[in-house]
Amino acid sequence: MILPIYVYGHPLLRKTAKEIDAATYPNLKELIDNMYETMYSADGVGLAAPQVGLEDRIFVVDLEPLADNEHPEFKSFKKVFINAEITEKTGELEWVEEGCLSIPGIHEKVPREERIRIQYLDEDLQPHDEEYTGYMARVIQHEYDHLDGIMFTDRISPLRKRMIKSKLSNMEKGKVSCHYRVKTV
């Protein structure tokens, strides 16, 4: 089932998500399938539970649509992150343009560390402790931020924030247009 994506300005996007367990979600597989289906319908590569109106610490990522000769490692990168915790960020800050399904039509350069270590549970609630670099680390950090109520626009330069202020203000007022189903304030 395709869920509506909550847009910038909705208060739920600013809340800190809560950990989940099997008892919280007896239909966890169905939730994960719905999140993937919603993400694919909006042409995204990542989606966090707060973006679909849930206060839960879960996000999905699928980089396969970006796999090519330069990035064959993306071919098999489809993961669910439950109760994730980034335990380490290292390396140089890299400024790369990001967008977000909850902030349609806006893309800005965002600084993020090039390497992370993350602990999480997969869709079978099995624990993992892994390291990621480059674009994989960036996408994970972006989605992880949603679990803590942080939007990518919170990380851009003050000058760029002033330049997009009116667009964000319009979104807060429910003035948004995109090709996927959204929920405004």
Describe the structure.
With 185 residues, this protein is α+β, with helices and mostly antiparallel strands. It has a single domain, classed as Peptide deformylase (Peptide Deformylase). The protein is 23% helix and 29% strand. It is built from three helices and seven strands, in the order E-H-E-E-E-E-E-H-H-E. The protein has helices spanning 28-41, 134-147, 158-172; strands at residues 5-6, 46-48, 58-62, 78-98, 108-121, 127-133, 182-183. A five-stranded antiparallel β-sheet has the order 2-3-4-5-6, sandwiched between helices. It has a two-stranded parallel ribbon with strand order 1-7. A hairpin with a 5-residue loop joins strand 5 (108-121) and strand 6. The longest helix has 15 residues, at 158-172.
What is the strand and helix layout of this fold?
Layout: E1 5-6, H1 28-41, E2 46-48, E3 58-62, E4 78-98, E5 108-121, E6 127-133, H2 134-147, H3 158-172, E7 182-183
Parallel strand pairs: 1-7
Antiparallel strand pairs: 2-3, 3-4, 4-5, 5-6
> What's the end-to-end separation, in Å?
22 Å
Overall mean confidence score, pLDDT = 95
Alpha-beta classification = alpha+beta
Give me the side-by-side strand order of the main sheet. Answer: 2-3-4-5-6
Counted beta strands: 7
**Count of discrete domains:** 1
Summary keywords:
185 residues; alpha+beta; Peptide Deformylase; two-stranded parallel sheet; 29% strand
Question: TL;DR?
Answer:
With 185 residues, the protein is of the alpha+beta class. Helix content is 23%, strand content 29%.
